[in-house]
Amino acid sequence: MLARLKYIKNAANTPETKQSLRERLRLTKNEKSQRVAMKRIRAGNDRLFILMGPPMELEYYRSRKPGGIDILTKRPGTARGRKVLEPSYRRLAKKWPKGCCSQFQHEARLSLSSCCNPHRNPDDGINMVVSLPGENDDQPNWQKLSMTALQERTVHFADGGEAQQSSANSHKRDVDSESLCSLLHQALDNGADLRIGLEKEKLWQLGSELATWKIREQSGTPLKDFLPGSPQSWRLRERSILAVILSHAVLHCLESPWLCNNWSKEHVVFFRKESSTEFEFDQPFLKVEFQEEDSEPVPFDPVSIHGNPIILALGILLLEIYTQTALESRREGQHSSDRESNANTNLTTAITFLKELDGDLRLKYRQAVKECLYWNDVQLDGDSLRQRIYDRIVEPLERELVEGFPDAENLFHICGQYSKEE
Asked: Does residue 27 sit within a domain?
């Protein structure tokens, strides 16, 4: 391959192979020839990238720290915490304050970056922020709320009997009958995070910790506001990190009430850093609406082309994040303006957009997007579904992040914690 490249370089410098001005004009004027030439150039670039690009970067990355964490070898294990996702949602929905605090309507935002944080097992619980009244009605304060599943212990006796004991954590207080609004205000006034333990259907307040998120006087900015173009630069590095976080969020929250079927760029929210105008793009939050009553199961739609609306939404988000372009702007008359968009029109528009980006997307990122759009494993569920999502979507995005930015070892707080359990 190296010999061929040297031959091409030497041949390009000879007078016989230099293109004349007339030939250049002919190539520009002939649209068909231009498309053929560009296709060959893109195919050649892809081959060069495969042969020369990633192995060098990958070898550099793997030689950085022999004892460090290699996120490229991670696999999703059996997620214990998926057992607490639905119970915590249902219990919070029952306890959610309605119309308290002078008719203030509380809102919740689920932390998505906590879904891939190796410093704590995301399966042990969830992190979120809840709005509280601020000086301005449209600029609330946000209080962190952590919910953890408390484990019961089983004591076995010599005669074969056994008994259930409560969690060993003695630093807890029964708050099952107390107002959640009051608990949130107490934590905010004391500059602490509110930690709640869930034991079966009972709620306990755990020992307080110093407030880690100080989000004051802001309502949050949805992802859609950054797509048409923002005065603040949004670098490729930040977009790649966000793509990994969103894919892990789907892996963690799939088949739970926290993630709705129609989630989109309007549901992903960012807050500004404390005392700054910059946004924390590596700390996205998800809008959550608690419904106390069990919602009706989504009926089978024989007209829908795609088999999983949540994965389709992820693929569309990945496209929009990478290109910083809203999908709606790509329709350009593909669908009649008097027709409301649906899953099928979004899918066809996204597929067309992906084809137009041929040669402009990195290979593994393109692979992840393509898997989302062409998803057909409708029969999978549970751990088999998550394994497929990790292998085909999450891992390519992780590799893309590491290979594109070899110093990704500093980003382990947002990716690569899903190790196989023994």
From this structure: no
Q: Is residue 41 part of a domain?
A: no
Beta-strand relationship, 202-206 and 125-136: unpaired
**CB atoms inside a 10 Å sphere around CB 273:** 12
CA 31 to the chain's CA centroid: 40
Match 């709705």 to its residue by tokens: 260
Give the three-class secondary structure for 268.
Answer: strand
For 139-174, the pLDDT digits (tens) are: 899 999 998 888 665 544 555 555 555 554 557 899
The answer for residues whose C-beta is within 8 angstroms of residue 15's C-beta and 6 or more apart is: none
pLDDT in tens, 87-102: 889 999 988 887 665 6
Q: CA-to-CA distance for 58 and 257, rounded, in angstroms?
A: 38
Containing structural domain, residue 338:
221-278+301-411
Tokens 């006087």 belong to which residue? 217
For residues 133 and 106, give the distance between their C-alpha atoms in angstroms, rounded to a whole number.
8
Same domain, 206 and 228: no
Whether 114 and 193 map to the same domain: the answer is yes
51: in domain: no
